[in-house]
Design a protein that fits this description.
Helix content: 40-55%
Order of helices and strands: HEHEHEHE
Number of helices: 4
Distance between the termini: 19 Å
Largest sheet: 4 strands, mixed
Radius of gyration: 12 Å
CATH class: Alpha Beta
Number of domains: 1
Strand content: 15-25%
CATH superfamily: Ribosomal protein L30/S12
Structural class: alpha+beta
CATH architecture: 2-Layer Sandwich
Length: about 90
């Protein structure tokens, strides 16, 4: 299996990532998402919502071994990112 961070970096170049809880949940509800990533320090409420909608859509959810600030840096954003999704 490929390293999730390397996969995220590759997907960033292809513009296939959705950043944030709201956009991820919308994508899950519309069946536009194929995979979801969340950080180890993601809020429990957010995590519960994401896992719930992902299970309804049969989408795999991957917990990253990084913090939300590290994920923000990986995505070259000046803010913390807790949830990412991959568009179909």
């Amino acid at each position: 299996m490929e390293d999730p961070i390397a996969e995220i970096k590759k997907l960033l170049k292809n513009d296939k990532l959705v950043i944030g809880k709201e956009e991820t949940v919308k994508g899950l509800k519309r069946s536009e998402v194929e995979k979801v990533f969340f950080t180890q320090n993601c809020d429990k409420t957010v995590r519960g919502d994401i896992v719930y909608y992902a299970q309804l859509s049969s989408v795999p959810v991957i917990e990253l071994a990084t913090s939300n600030t590290e994920l923000g840096q990986v995505c070259k954003k000046p803010y913390a990112i807790s949830v990412l999704a991959v568009r179909k």
